[in-house]
Specification:
Helices cover about 15% and strands about 50% of the residues. With about 160 residues, it is of the alpha+beta class. It has a single domain (about 30-155), classed as Lipoxygenase-1 (Sandwich), CATH 2.60.60. The strands form two sheets. A six-stranded antiparallel β-sheet has the order 1-10-9-6-3-4. Strand 7 (about 105-115) and strand 8 (about 125-130) form a beta hairpin. The longest helix is centred in the first third of the chain and has 20 residues, at about 5-20. The protein is globular, with a radius of gyration of 23 Å. Mean pLDDT is about 85; it is low at about 10-25.
């Protein structure tokens, strides 16, 4: 290899390394969902058996609160619950609360937040429990979702 060829190889290698650093995208943290269409908030639960048994043995409801206002709520009987915060909805903080509507057994519930368009692979889940001694109407804070344009930052409601 001649000196001229070696110099050209070094120059090309250095240029490629420089370009590789310029084109990197920001890494999205695991608690952030980037989706211009919005997010879906899903509530499912278990009483120890199948999903079909769970919706017969317990009734849980899901609501999203923005400030002092109920933004949206899902109160179906005999099925799991689901709500959405759309990309066109106002920026701000949305609190997902789970309500124990009825159950005489302990209930493990999971709140899952995922992008509406499924472009982003991030999915956020939190699992909590209602005890069999909790009275009907008991609420638990599940997650807090902060919407800023098409970005949704989720944190557990502990």
């Amino acid at each position: 290899m001649t000196w001229k060829n070696l110099s050209a190889l070094i120059l090309v290698s250095a240029s490629l390394l420089g370009l590789a650093g310029c084109g990197t995208e920001d890494v999205i943290p695991g608690n952030v969902i980037a989706d211009n269409f919005g997010v879906t908030v899903e509530l499912s639960w278990s009483t120890g058996g199948s999903a079909l048994v769970a919706v017969r043995e317990a009734d849980l409801d899901l609501k999203l609160v923005a400030g002092d206002t109920i933004f949206s709520e899902s109160r179906f009987a005999n099925q799991f619950e689901q709500l959405r915060i759309l990309g066109v909805d106002a920026n701000g903080e949305y609190v997902a609360r789970v309500v124990l509507a009825a159950s005489a057994k302990p209930v493990d519930f999971t709140v899952t937040v995922r992008g509406v368009s499924n472009v982003n692979a991030n999915v956020y889940r939190v699992t909590k429990t209602f005890a069999d001694t909790d009275p009907d109407g008991t609420e638990q804070l599940a997650v807090v979702i902060t919407k800023t344009a098409g970005q949704f930052t989720i944190r557990s409601g502990d």
